[in-house]
Hints:
Layout: H1 21-43, H2 53-58, H3 65-86, H4 98-108, H5 111-124, E1 129-135, E2 141-147, E3 158-164, H6 171-174, H7 178-185, H8 191-201
Antiparallel strand pairs: 1-2, 1-3
Helix pairs in contact: 1-3, 5-7
Amino acid sequence: MAFEVPELTFAHDALEPYINKRTMELHHGLHHAAYVNKFNAAIEGTDLAGKGAEEIIQNLDAVPENIRTAVRNNGGGHVNHSIFWSIMGANKGGEPTGELGDAIKSTFGSFDNFKEKFNSAGGGQFGSGWVWLVMTPEGKLDVVGTPNQDTPMSQGHKVIMGNDVWEHAYYLTYENRRPEYLKAWWNVVDFDAVAKRFAEAK
């Protein structure tokens, strides 16, 4: 079965003023759709066609060399964006509580320290890419960046949350002011969804 762009759990304008409606229409409806179409085309007729997207991305060495770059870029784009949409929502933000909140404070000293490190990594990511909160293979939380549509899953990490720092994610509102976008983005993070990913990663 071919991969599809997941439906959003919120309207295109629900994240305003932090992420505007037109950005969401283009980002979800066109950019993500392009990754999905190219990913499906790359694996059509191969043994990969019956596997899950994350399973494929986690094992890039097993992908035939002649399609590996297309799978890495477009499969990664599909997986990364699917996570991205799932951890955002209207009237969200705030601060994580429970086990996730405790783990963040234990690892980074405070939630504010974590946000500062996350934003710094996102702002410092050269060119296009992502910034992530991951659980390492050793079971520790860490903040990492990846270029383009690479995903920490390919490096053995489990993704807890991530923010897209490609220009298409923010340029219509923030132009070249990526740090401003990174700061505003916390207002739309659904920490209930992030906490669920954290629980599943443990």
